[in-house]
Amino acid sequence: MAEKFSNNGRSTLSGAINSAVTSLTVASASSFPTTGNFRIKIDSELLLVTAVSTNTFTVTRGIESTTAASHSSGATVTHVITAGAFDTFVQGTTPSGAVVGTTDNQTLSGKTLSGVEINGAVTGTYTLGGTPTFPSSVATLTGTQTLTNKTLTAPVISTISNTGTVTLPTSTDTLVGRATTDTLTNKTITSPTFSGTLSGTYTIGGTPTFPSDVVQTTTLQTLSNKTLNNPVISQISNTGVLTLPTSTDVLVGRATTDTLTNKTLTNPTMSGTLSGTYTIGGTPTFPSTVVQTTSTQTLTNKTIVAASNTITTVASGNLTSTNLNSALAELQTDLDTRPQYSTGTIASIPTSSVRTNDHYEPTDGLFSQYRYGTTQWQAVGSHGRLTDPLTALSPPYYNWYLTGSGTNEYACVLASNGNDPGLTQPGTLFINGSEATSGTVGSLAAGTWGWGSYSGFNTVHVRLSDGTDPDTKAYGYIRSDALSWLVKGNMSASVEKNHLYIQSTSNGATLTCRMRAMNVPSTPYTMYALIIPGAGTVNTLDHIGLGWSDGTAFQTIGWRVNNSTCYLTNMTNATTFNSDAVSFTIGQSPLYFCVRDDGTNRLFMLGNVPDYNRMRLVTAVTRTSFLTPTKVGIVDIRNSNLTGAFFPHLQVVSG
Asked: How far is CA 629 from the centre of its chain?
């Protein structure tokens, strides 16, 4: 950088500096050059100023054989001219531009170089005067040289020296080589010899000679394995007479297998099996194995459908397997003694015409089934509910005692003795048909519930909105539900007509999987549900049923309501559809859906009664297929607004 100068450049240090700093501040820099480079002296140290910013100098310390030292605040700072400053100048005429050094790498502009030797690469635009000498590897305009791996763009070639004559086309095209493979267009080939296969469209002039395996129009030849499309055959030479139909059709061969349509066969002999619809005229003769309307024949392994057949006379002795009357008597005895299965409320348990081992399933109460013994109904313990998914906590089975803790808080007890009712902690509590908020026992807010200790056992506690005793309310005013929302989305649950009812609270335009679930019990266990889906706008993925979840993925069997079809559906997560593993139409009749975990496999079933032994197995998967279940319950998949679904019967049983 050029040296800068000023007159009377002098100031003082604004602060003390040590021998290492490379920046210093003066009281005023107004008498110094505004940019570097220039030289200053502080005490006996010379410094080179390389940059100026207001009153701050950037410096190189201890130049020109002086020693960097510490200087006190107020020390004099003087602009000086030194021997080093003079060494930066070239004596004589000052050049108008930068000076060219003998060993520096510099870019020269507007220069004429005479008698120079250029080594290395020359870039940019330049003019060569005189007669330059180039190495042999440089191609010149007039030199005779061999070029290798060069591309000539639009060259003009006046003479080609080589053996033979090369004639180039006058238009732009690709030359045809003697031994190359090329496609020729618009060419006339005179007296050629062809080998191989000709393709494309071409015209053969003159009188060509073809090999014997080429079919010609006027030559007598035998054709094999040919298909003639719309041929005109003027003469057929063969033994015998061939008569062709006058219409377009397929000829019938003598030994071929053909389907005949609209044919009359006179005195045919038929063997094999006749299929389709046909009329047999005259008086045909049938083999003895064919059943005829007027013949007396013995039928074996036949089913006679009463809806389309009438049996007017049964000859005595013609029916074996005892006889018909005995068979009917055996059937009636079986019907009379077979245990019957029925459902209803506890108050409707039948008291007459009851037989041993009859089963009755109440829609309320403590147990899922009752079995009639020799004299009375008995609760079935081995098939009792693990949890009653929707249990009415009302008399006559339960009572509510004022706990004395909190305000108007009541605890649920067994009505018969006020002791432990044996309840499992609910997932949800419905008060007057609506989901109630849970709270802390002893400080329940009005209209909430909690789970906690009372008289040495854990039970349900409630505080009604009006502060009254729950025993004064109607049956089913408070209902316990073992299920709670695993994924709720835009859904709500309520009790309608004494049954669980779930519905969308808003239009779900985005696919979402919702689930009311409980922790999976110890295996084996079975969950049943009678599902009546609501009406409304539905989508191809609107689905309601039972299934499992591992907390992320879902696997369910249920209605696809828009087409009355049952599907086994897999969801990767609550918003990602995976696949429909199984599907089949089941119509609109209400059916029981069933999911069962026997500890090895998970089974999906349908039926008319909640008994997995009497239900149709839809499919079974290994227990860890697609997911390892931690939750079981109701699964609802919605992509639109379906009004809801009733669950008139929902239960979980062990065994």
From this structure: 21
User: Which is more confident, 644 or 403?
Assistant: 403
Question: What digits encode the pLDDT tens for the residues 196-207?
Answer: 777 777 777 777
Helix (H) or strand (E) holding 337: helix 324-337
| Integer angstrom CA distances of residue 476 from 289, 391, 636 | 69, 8, 25
Is the preceding omega at residue 95 within 30 degrees of 0, hence cis?
A: no
CB-CB contact of 546 with 625 (8 Å): no
Is 504 within 8 Å of 490 (Cβ atoms)?
Answer: yes
pTM of the predicted protein model: 0.43
Contact between 371 and 357 under an 8 Å Cβ cutoff? The reply is yes
Task: Work out whether the CA dihedral 352, 356, 361, 367 comes out positive or negative.
Answer: positive
Q: How many CB atoms lie within 10 A of CB 449?
A: 25
How far is the CA of 553 from the CAs of 114, 522, 556, 574, 576, in angstroms?
Answer: 86, 21, 10, 7, 9
3-state helix, strand, coil in the chain (%, to 5): 5, 30, 65
- Label each residue of 226-265 as H, E or C: CCCCCCCCCCCCCCCCCCCCCCCCCCCCCCCCCCCCCCCC
**Rounded to an integer, what distance in angstroms lies between the CA atom of residue 274 and that of residue 452?**
79
d(CA 359, CA 238): 85
Of 542, 522, 541, 543, residue with least CA distance to 593 = 543
Name the one residue in this structure whose structure tokens are 């929902």.
650
For the purposes of burial, counting CB atoms within 10 Å of the CB of 41, is it exposed (0-12), middle (13-18) or buried (19 or more)?
middle
Q: Which two tokens stand for residue 207?
A: 């009188």
Tell how strand 576-585 and strand 631-638 pair up. Answer: unpaired
Token digits of residue 153? 């763009």
* 3 state DSSP class of 550: coil
Measured in degrees and rounded to the nearest 5, phi and psi for residue 152 equal: -100, 115
pLDDT per residue over 236-262, tens digit each? 666 656 566 566 677 777 778 877 777
Mean pLDDT, to the nearest integer, of 123-152?
A: 75
Residue 382: both structure tokens together: 């081995």
Cis status of the peptide bond prior to 524, with omega within 30 of 0: yes
